[in-house]
Amino acid sequence: MTTVRITRTALTRDTLAALSGLLAGFAALTVAELVSAAVRPEASPVTAVGGAAIDRTPAGVKDWAIRNFGENDKFVLQLGIVVTLALFAVVVGLLALRHRRTGSAAVLAFGVVGVASAVSRPDSTGVVDGLPSLVGAVAGAVLLYVLVGRLTRPRRIAGEEQDDESGWDRRGFLIAATAAAAASTAAGAVGRTLNGRSAQDAVASREAVTLPAPASPARPIPAGAQLRVPGLPSFTTPNDTFYRVDTALVIPKVDANSWRLRIHGEGVRRDLEFTYQDLLDRPLIEREITLCCVSNEVGGPYIGHARWIGVRLADLLKEAGVKPPSRGGKADQIIARSVDGMTLGTPVEDVMDGRDAMLAVGMNGEPLPFVNGFPVRMLVPGLYGYVSACKWIEDIELTTFDAYDAYWVKRKWAREASIKTQSRIDTPKPFGRPEAGTVMVAGVAWAQHRGIEKVEIRVDDGPWKPAQLAEQATVDTWRQWTYPWKATPGGHTLTVRATDGTGETQTEKRTKTVPDGASGWHSVVVTVD
Ligand SMILES: Nc1nc2c(c(=O)[nH]1)N[C@H]1C(S)=C(S)[C@@H](COP(=O)(O)O)O[C@H]1N2
Ligand SMILES: [Mo]
Q1: What are phi and psi for residue 161, nearest 5 degrees?
Q2: What is the pTM (predicted TM-score) of this model?
Q3: What is the pLDDT of residues 232-261, one digit of tens each?
Q4: Are the beta carbons of 233 and 426 closer than 8 angstroms?
Q5: Cis check: omega of the bond before 515, within 30 degrees of 0
């Protein structure tokens, strides 16, 4: 009898100790959320630790995550952090039952990780960023101490020990645990609401924007640029399906009314500062530009096309007195900084060589969506996003490539990266089963700022045959193509290659995306029925 009861009691206490750990962890996070509302939403521990984890992720792992989780990579990371924390919380709860102080010390140790991450984030505003993690960890440590105390101490009523059947204060535990859960939930809810409030100002500021008519409108996309072939993406990618690549766990919500952009640094004669309205008041250009990511695999989806409205960046640089290196300028690199501390390095020469490099405020007729960089982002036709397309930009510093390596360059990616000529078969899909007869093979090809001159298709090991090109919108856009294929029954491999406007044909040599973009031909295997 006695043996059975002891075992059951031990089991129950272990379970409740694990629960105490979880409650302590929950309290730590929710209290931290509440404190972060007073400091900065980005200083909350999950955001800070997640951000620090992203920064420390090796280039290969980042690439792997993008390949396997795509745009869900951040959700997977956050889920991973929460599951890991929950497992640790259970272990810490069990530990606390055996050594009460050590358990609480372990909670504080987690707090130290949170503080260190928050304070060392590139967008950190200083030691105050550590406050949410610190206060949260103290709350968690105290709570764990109190709860485990109930599990180890007999209940006392009026100074007399009341040994109930299990020898510990079951009722006291339940009361304390319920109160802690309720208080934590309330703290979390209030914190969330307050943190959401600053985002509301940003949303309101975006809704208040009316984009002025551009002084220099885009040439209309020729009707012949958009082919009507099922399975081919639309020439213009709608904003809500545009690909997204960035390191932001929480999408920055910037209030356009308080936003400022600074231009300064090496070779700048006059430091300049602009408000959002200053930019809207300038002559705006509107341009068709296809953007793509260096992490795009051969045949991959990280490319999209939009019509952008913005201010010519070269004009702003000239006003600041900047000269390109080819005309004796000292700075050869622009470092663009975003509100979340990201840095992207772009050659000054490319921005000032006459191409339509811009600070964009509009995307497909709307103010930039928050995910794509509201209020302002940079764009440079012909360069991969990571060396040109800074979203949520707030600072432009002129410097040299010798003096400074931007974020991705510190992580094994190339300093300079022009977009490689690429082509993709969009239809038929890999392992598709088209019927014998004429099959419309179609896709896109791109070599921004050089243009596409030719696309060729090869069936199995046959000769290269020219595809029919859709009309070219501009050299900065992708180009659609089709190839009516007389398909015969059986398995076949279709391969595509493009030639850019300089006459250079896409190399067959397959390379990885790291360090400066994937090369190689895209092919698709199908079975014709
Ligand atoms: N602030 C900031 N800007 C950024 C990035 C980022 O991580 N942070 N990623 C860059 C990369 S790698 C690419 S490919 C483009 C993607 O832009 P999009 O998300 O609007 O498609 O944004 C660029 N600008
Ligand atoms: Mo990218």
Answers
A1: -70, 125
A2: 0.87
A3: 999 999 999 999 999 988 899 999 999 999
A4: yes
A5: yes
Nearest of 450, 474, 422 to residue 306 by alpha carbon:
474
Whether the Cβ atoms of residue 25 and residue 45 lie closer than 8 Å to each other: no
Cα–Cα separations (whole angstroms), residue 519 to 62, 243, 511, 525: 19, 20, 5, 19
Q: Which two tokens stand for residue 306?
A: 């939009």
Segment (H or E) for 359 = strand 358-363
* Tokens 């764990």 sit on residue: 144
Chain-centre distance of CA 361, in angstroms?
19
Cis-peptide into 375, omega within 30 deg: yes
At a CB cut-off of 8 Å and minimum separation 6, what does 99 contact? none
Which residue shows structure tokens 């259970």?
Answer: 90
SS3 letters across 113-161: HHHHHHHHCCCCCCHHHHHHHHHHHHHHHHHHHHHHHHHHCCEEECCEE
Q: Is 452 helix (H, G, I), strand (E, B) or coil?
A: strand
pLDDT cut 90: percent of the chain above it: 80
Tokens of 47: 């955001």
Q: How far is the CA of 123 from the centre of ligand 2 (A)?
A: 20
Sign of CA dihedral 334, 309, 391, 75: negative
Question: What letter would DSSP give residue 248?
Answer: -
Q: Which amino acid is at 237?
A: T
Rounded to the nearest 5 percent, the helix, strand and coil shares of the chain are: 40, 25, 35
3-class state of residue 269 by DSSP = coil
| Ligand 1 pocket member 513 (CB < 6 A) | no
Is the CB of 274 inside a 6 Å radius of any atom of ligand 1?
no
Average the pLDDT over 369-392 and give the result: 98
Q: Which ligand is nearest to the CA of 376?
A: 1
DSSP letters spanning 186-232: HHHHHHHHHHHHHHHHHHHHHHT--PPPPSBPPPPPPGGGS---TTP
Compute the average pLDDT of residues 498-520: 97
What phi and psi, each to the nearest 5 degrees, are found at residue 330? -80, -40
Any atom of ligand 1 within 6 Å of the Cβ of 485: no
Rounded CA separation 155/36 (Å): 37
C-beta of 247 in contact with ligand 1 (< 6 A): yes
Atom 13 in ligand 1: residue holding the nearest Cα: 385
Domains and CATH numbers, the chain: 2-204 (no CATH), 223-411 (3.90.420.10), 422-528 (2.60.40.650)
Tokens of 212: 């002025």
Amino acid, res. 285: I
Residue 429 pLDDT exceeds 70: yes
**Alpha-carbon distance 458 to 455, whole Å?**
10
Alpha carbon 342 to chain centroid, angstroms: 11
Residue 58 preceded by cis peptide, ω within 30: no
**How far is it, in rounded angstroms, from Cα 477 to Cα 304?**
10
